[in-house]
Amino acid sequence: MQLPFLRCATLSLALCTGTVMANTVEQALDENTAHSQAAQRSQQQVEQLDDATQKMLQEYRTALLKTKTLTGYNKQMRELVAAQQQELAGYQQQLADLQDTEAAVTPQMQRMLEVLEQFISADLPFLPYERRDRLETLQDLLPRADVSIAEKYRRILEAYQIESDYGRTLEVWRDALKRDGNELNVDFLRLGRLMLYYQTPDGHETGWWNAQAKEWQVLNGNARRPVAQAIAIARQQKSPDWLALPIKTLAWEAQQ
Known about the structure:
Elements: H1 2-122, H2 128-141, H3 149-166, E1 170-179, E2 182-191, E3 195-199, E4 206-210, E5 215-218, H4 224-234, H5 248-255
Antiparallel strand pairs: 1-2, 2-3, 3-4, 4-5
Helix pairs in contact: 1-2, 1-3, 2-3
């Protein structure tokens, strides 16, 4: 009679054992799943930390590169500023020298204009308006602040050169001659700075400028032909040739 009871007890024990084992396995699986999920979360955190670390490392490298670039740029700027300061000092010195030069040259240029004015007044009276206008232009130019000293000096030297060239040229022009209250339309002939003649277009009257008497005087008929020939040569109407022009001594003799 005891055998069935043992079988039941054994079966019950087996069922209990199976249930416990099933619960244990399920619990182990749940724990394994939890550990796996925790591991995944940990891995994600590690990966996130690694990405952040890589980003920070890249930012650090970029900052280092920018620092290096800025360091080089700042060095170049310091060198440039130093060069500009040195150049500025040179300009300031040049300006100081220029002011000293201007203080020395300006009175000299003023004196040159005074000498030029005296020379024109004492010279033969040819091209009076042109020469006077040139002189007045220079006199107006000298006090101007918008014109450099070099330009002023160049213009004065240019005027001196023009006056110098007058002494080496043969020139003719037509203009009005005022004499004894009358006005004649004549051809003027300038022989360098040696002589200044005039002749009416019809050739009936020929004269010269008497520098001692400061007046125009009529020459005798012998001067008509050589003066007319010189006028034609000056106008390039005739080939250059020997000229037998009356000079001062002969002109004086012609008036005696």
